[in-house]
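re: that chain from earlier
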Amino acid sequence: MSLGPSLACIGLMGKHDNPLHIAIFEPHSAAESAHLEFSFLLNASLDIFELRASDRNRVDQDLGMLQAIDERLSTWGWQTGTGTKFAVIVDMWGKQGRPSTGSAIKGEDLKPVFKALQTAYIRLLQNPFYTPDDHTPTAAMRSRGSAGEIKSKKFIAEVKRIGDVWTPGLEKV
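^ sequence. v structure.
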């Protein structure tokens, strides 16, 4: 079990702020209410995404730390040119679930995560059997909500791998 910060959650939101995928990692995934709690935290970051993305001086897709939720959790964001949002919730206590001393996260620590997520998402979009238009809020309503989230097993496994292997200072995920 690694010491230091770890990823608690990875969320992908569409350009209409609709959830596309939410992955929750240990030790948080064991809680019954984890999906609801992290959905709320990801949703709470959407306004900050909008504010940061509207900055005309921004030259990077990396939006940095969006919010510190408490002394344990913080949300970091990345937005693609098409408006798809990647949010990562970092747990400063890590997988051991108790405070670790001397650990801090810099924006550079999460760039490999966001680049790996973007690569996985691009590979998903290149799949001829995946149609992004099926994942809009309108399409989800037409099919009674079943079309909203990404169901690609390969994509889901890659997101899980990214969340499981990341540690601060890792140059490539």
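DSSP finds five helices and five strands in the chain.
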